[in-house]
């Protein structure tokens, strides 16, 4: 068995009857100073304990997704209505700088020059 059928069978094994797709696939690209154990430890600290998960299920059991806010039309309407001000752009840039500093502390991109500027290309 191969191809799409094999992929489907693999996904079925990771499918939860209540929560759906339970796959978590992350890729970290970094230098030789990046320490996998450090990253794994940080990610594991983000996981809920069994007690926290049970509390989550209780507090969210009655929540329902409203039909009117998640339609395609609403998504487009909200997207078109968004305008990013200069202060919001500056705030995002500061946040990006803080994120970069954190990743550098883990060894990600540590050999890059600090003055290097990257530009997004659409």
In a nutshell, what does this entry contain?
This is CobW C-terminal domain-containing protein. This protein is mostly helical and 122 residues long.
Uncertain spans? none
Overall, the morphology is: extended
Widest sheet, order of strands: 1-2
User: How far from one another are the termini?
Assistant: 39 Å
Chart the SSEs and their pairings.
Blueprint: H1 3-13, E1 15-16, E2 20-21, H2 36-45, H3 50-60, H4 72-81, H5 86-105
Antiparallel strand pairs: 1-2
Protein name: CobW C-terminal domain-containing protein
Describe it.
By secondary structure, this protein is mainly α. 51% of the residues lie in helices and 3% in strands. The chain is built from five helices and two strands, in the order H-E-E-H-H-H-H. The chain has a two-stranded antiparallel sheet. The two termini are 39 Å apart.
Record keyword descriptors for this entry.
122 residues; extended; 3% strand; mainly alpha; 2 strands; two-stranded antiparallel sheet; single chain; CobW C-terminal domain-containing protein
């Amino acid at each position: 068995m191969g191809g799409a059928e094999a992929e489907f069978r693999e996904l079925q094994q990771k499918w939860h009857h209540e929560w759906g797709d339970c796959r978590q696939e992350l890729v970290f690209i970094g230098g030789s100073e990046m320490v996998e154990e450090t990253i794994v430890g940080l990610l594991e600290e983000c996981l809920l304990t069994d007690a926290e998960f049970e509390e989550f299920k209780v507090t969210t059991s009655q929540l329902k997704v409203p039909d009117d806010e998640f339609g395609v039309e609403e998504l487009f309407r909200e997207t078109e209505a968004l305008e990013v001000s200069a202060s919001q752009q500056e705030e995002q840039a500061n946040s990006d700088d803080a994120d970069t500093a954190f990743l550098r502390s883990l060894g990600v991109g540590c050999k890059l020059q600090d003055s290097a500027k990257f530009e997004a290309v659409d």
